[in-house]
C-alpha cells in the first residue's frame, strides 16, 4: 500500500519512518515534507500546500494511494477529512466538526462541562472589558487563552493583573484572528503535565503510552513557551490506576459527548492533562492530532504495526486490537536554532546525523531542508534525536550521546529532557 502523510514536522517524519518499517508499505508521500522525508528511503516529498485539498486528491487518485494520514491541526480544522470522506477515500483524522475540540477552546470547554469531564474552572468572554473585570474578581495567577488555533502562542499564564489585561488586549486586537473573537479565562492549576494521545474509531478509544512534553525553552522548565523541546514515554507519573481513571473519567466521556453531538471522530484524541498535587487528572486542552514531539518518543516503542491501527480507526475496527509495546522507555531531544522561540537564523549547514544514528538513535527532522544536496536548518525546531533503552536513564544517555554528534551554527537543546521522571527536581 502507498500512504500520503500531510505535514512537515518531526511528527510527520516519525510517522513516515514508522510506516516504512512494515513490508506492506511500499511508499510514503509527504505534503510538503522536510529534509528528512526527502532523504528517507521509500519516502518522497510533494510540493503542494496542505490546504490544497483538490491537488492532494488528484495526486491520491492518479497514484492509487490507499490511505491519507493528517499530521497538523490546520487542514483538519479546514475540513480535509470531510473532503476526502465525501470522495470515499481513506483518511485518518477527525472531521471539521470533530477538530473543533482543538480549534475552539470555548467549544471544548462547553463539551467538557456538559459531560462532567474534570477541567479547570473557566469563563468565556466576547468582550475585553468583561474579561478584565473577571480577572480582577478572580485574582492571579490566572490563565488567558485565545479561543482559536494560535500555533501554541495563544496561552498566557499571567502572574499579575497587568499581564492578564495585556494578554486580553492582544487577543481582542485580533492577533490570533479577527473573526468572532473570544477569550477563555481559566483557573491556574499547579502539578505535572502529561500528554495522553489516544486513538479512536468513534466507537472505542485506546490510549497510547503516556508521554511528557517539555514546553519551556530553558532547563528546569524556565523561560518562554515553545512548541516542545523534548518528550519521553512512558511517563511514570501515569500509573496503571491513573490511566484507568483517565480512560473512565476523560477519554470515554469525551467520546460519548462527541457521539451525542453526532460527531463521528476517527483519529487521535490528544488530552493535555494536568495531574494536580492531589493526583487528580484535569484537562487543560484537547488536540485533534498526534502531538509533536511526543509522537517521536511514543511511536519508537510501538510494536503493533502503525498502519494496522490507523486503518482500524478509519474502518471502525479498533476494538479488535490490543496495542502492543516494546519494553523500556524512549526519549526525544529537540535540537533548536539559537534564538528560538524568538527570532533565529535559517540555512545553517547540519552535520553529524549519520554519526548520531550510529550511536543507536533515530534522528527525525523537523525544520530542515535539502538545498543543493546539503542539509540545512529551516525552522526553529530543527531535529528530534530519539533513542529507546531498557530504562529511561539508558534512553537519555543514548539520546544525548547522539545529540553530541550533531553540529550546526547556534544549535541549542535542553540537557534535562526526561530527568524529572528520574526524580531530579525541576
Ligand atoms: P494549552 O495550549 O491549553 O495546553 O496551554 C499551553 C500551556 O499553558 C500548557 O501546556 C500549560 O503549561 C499552560 N497552561 C494552560 N492552561 C493552564 C492552567 N489552567 N493552569 C496552569 N497552566 C496552564
Ligand atoms: N507537544 C504539544 C503539541 O503537540 O501540541
Please name the CATH topology of the largest domain: D-amino Acid Aminotransferase, Chain A, domain 1
Q: CATH superfamily of the largest domain, called what?
A: ATP-grasp fold, B domain
User: How many DSSP helices?
Assistant: 14
Secondary structure: helix percent: 25-40%
Which class of secondary structure composition applies to the elements? alpha+beta
How is the biggest beta sheet arranged? 5 strands, parallel
Major β-sheet strand ordering: 3-2-1-4-5
Low-confidence stretches are none
Ligands bound here?
adenosine monophosphate, glycine
Output the CATH class name of the largest domain.
Alpha Beta
User: What general form does the structure show?
Assistant: globular
Domain module tally: 4
What is the radius of gyration?
Answer: 21 Å
Mind explaining what this structure looks like?
31% of the residues lie in helices and 26% in strands. The protein is of the alpha+beta class and 426 residues long. A hairpin with an 8-residue loop joins strand 7 (142-146) and strand 8 (155-158). The protein has four domains: 2-95, 3-Layer(aba) Sandwich (Rossmann fold), CATH 3.40.50; 121-187, ATP-grasp fold, A domain (Dna Ligase, domain 1); 192-320, ATP-grasp fold, B domain (D-amino Acid Aminotransferase, Chain A, domain 1, 2-Layer Sandwich), CATH 3.30.470.20; 329-421, Glycinamide Ribonucleotide Synthetase, Chain A, domain 4, CATH 3.90.600.10. The strands form six sheets. The chain has a five-stranded parallel sheet with strand order 3-2-1-4-5, with helices on both faces. The chain has 14 helices and 22 strands. The termini are far apart. The structure holds adenosine monophosphate (AMP) and glycine. Adenosine monophosphate is lined by residues 120, 143, 145, 155, 157, 186-189, 193, 215, 272, 284-285.
Amino acid at each position: 500500500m502507498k500512504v500520503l502523510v500531510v505535514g512537515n514536522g518531526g511528527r510527520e517524519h516519525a510517522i513516515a519512518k514508522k510506516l516504512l518499517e512494515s513490508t506492506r508499505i511500499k511508499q510514503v508521500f509527504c505534503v510538503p515534507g522536510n529534509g528528512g522525508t526527502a532523504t528517507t528511503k521509500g519516502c518522497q516529498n510533494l510540493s503542494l500546500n496542505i490546504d490544497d485539498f483538490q491537488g492532494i486528491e488528484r495526486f491520491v487518485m492518479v497514484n492509487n494511494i490507499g490511505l491519507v494520514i493528517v499530521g497538523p491541526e490546520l487542514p483538519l480544522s479546514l475540513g480535509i477529512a470531510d473532503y476526502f470522506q465525501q470522495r470515499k477515500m481513506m483518511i485518518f483524522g477527525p472531521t471539521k466538526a470533530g477538530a473543533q475540540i482543538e480549534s475552539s477552546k470555548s467549544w471544548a470547554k462547553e463539551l467538557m462541562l456538559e459531560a462532567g469531564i474534570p477541567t479547570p474552572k473557566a469563563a468565556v468572554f466576547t468582550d475585553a472589558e468583561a474579561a478584565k473585570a473577571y480577572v480582577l474578581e478572580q485574582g492571579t495567577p490566572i490563565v488567558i487563552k485565545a479561543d482559536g488555533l494560535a500555533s501554541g502562542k495563544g496561552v498566557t499564564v499571567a502572574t499579575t493583573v497587568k499581564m492578564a489585561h495585556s494578554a486580553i488586549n492582544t487577543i481582542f486586537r485580533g492577533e490570533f484572528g479577527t473573526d468572532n473573537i473570544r477569550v477563555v479565562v481559566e483557573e491556574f492549576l499547579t502539578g505535572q503535565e502529561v500528554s495522553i494521545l489516544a486513538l479512536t474509531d468513534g466507537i472505542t478509544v485506546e490510549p497510547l503510552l503516556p508521554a511528557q512534553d517539555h514546553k519551556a525553552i530553558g532547563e528546569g522548565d524556565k523561560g518562554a513557551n515553545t512548541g516542545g523541546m523534548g518528550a519521553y514515554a512512558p511517563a511514570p507519573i501515569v500509573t496503571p490506576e491513573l490511566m484507568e481513571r483517565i480512560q473512565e473519567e476523560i477519554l470515554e466521556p469525551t467520546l460519548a459527548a462527541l457521539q451525542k453531538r453526532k460527531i463521528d471522530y476517527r483519529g487521535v484524541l490528544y488530552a493535555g492533562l494536568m495531574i494536580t498535587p492531589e493526583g487528580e487528572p484535569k484537562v487543560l486542552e484537547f488536540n485533534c492530532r498526534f502531538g509533536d514531539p511526543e509522537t517521536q518518543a511514543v511511536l519508537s516503542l510501538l510494536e503493533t504495526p502503525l498502519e494496522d491501527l490507523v486503518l482500524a480507526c478509519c474502518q471502525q475496527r479498533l476494538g479488535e486490537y490490543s496495542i502492543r509495546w516494546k519494553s523500556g522507555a524512549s526519549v526525544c531531544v529537540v535540537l533548536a536554532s539559537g534564538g528560538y522561540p524568538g527570532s533565529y537564523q535559517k540555512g545553517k549547514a547540519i552535520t553529524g546525523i549519520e554519526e548520531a544514528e550510529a550511536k543507536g538513535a533515530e534522528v527525525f527532522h523537523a525544520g530542515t531542508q535539502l538545498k543543493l544536496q546539503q542539509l540545512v536548518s529551516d525552522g526553529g525546531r530543527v531535529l528530534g534525536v530519539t533513542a529507546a533503552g531498557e530504562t529511561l536513564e539508558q534512553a537519555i544517555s543514548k539520546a544525548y550521546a547522539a545529540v553530541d554528534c550533531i553540529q550546526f551554527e547556534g544549535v541549542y537543546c535542553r540537557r534535562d529532557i526526561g530527568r524529572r521522571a528520574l526524580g531530579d527536581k525541576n
